[in-house]
């Protein structure tokens, strides 16, 4: 999200992509994408009239508590909504990011607890992580958060005030917040897939995206280890655009930012842990470079950029782990010839 030794891989990827993206083939994929996304929107609309009705009733039981809590915060920051917005969209997501990564870094640097290391995807890598390489990654991530994410959030605030007050006194309903999260996810999938794939073009890769792929076996903190331009266009823009389009409330926006950071951290963490989303898809992207460009894999399936992934053991393991047995034990690699 690699180094010069893998340039030949990216050249091969460019050749493969050029074959895949003939005008007719690309147009067919775009039409399929439109059908899938359109169907998804209709499904979400129907979903909103059934299960979410019951969830809304459950949410209503604690609705007064959350509304009262928000009202106190709203009054406390009356006249200082820009500060409140910045705290909600920068401070809270940043704390979430570093809290999760602090736990992961403890395992990455010490190899303890050994219970966790059993779930490492690439067993021969980062055991322990290279401290020099890690320090450089942390410096880059911190730079991106302060000098790229921070200013972008300020711009987002002023764009959202054109639609109204993003820190309004009334909280969104549970039903609306859920629909917003679904919309944000669709926007992120589309923008991230195409921007990410664009950064894999040889003319851009060597100048920008190569930095992220220095980690062929990623760890959580490198989720936002990227060139500043890539961080702005491919990491931040797909996440911030959804709330801007809908003019979302601060609470929805903040919750979405936290979920997005948590999700990308898990995707890069290098451990397929029980009861957490599978990171096999994006881990395979770091390993092979020219597969698995998206978030959910919808557009990869439509464009055929997961074809090699679907022929691997990693694909068999790409599922929610609901037991304590690591998937590299229950679904072991195929023994190499002569072993």
Automatic annotation (TrEMBL):
Fatty acid hydroxylase domain span: 182-305
GO terms for MF: iron ion binding; oxidoreductase activity
GO cellular component, one term: membrane
TM stretches of this protein: 33-52, 137-159, 174-194
Cell compartment(s), UniProt: Membrane
Polar residues composition bias: residue spans: 1-21
Matches recorded under InterPro entries: Fatty_acid_hydroxylase, Sterol_Desaturase_Related
GO BP: any one term: lipid biosynthetic process
Protein name: Fatty acid hydroxylase domain-containing protein 2
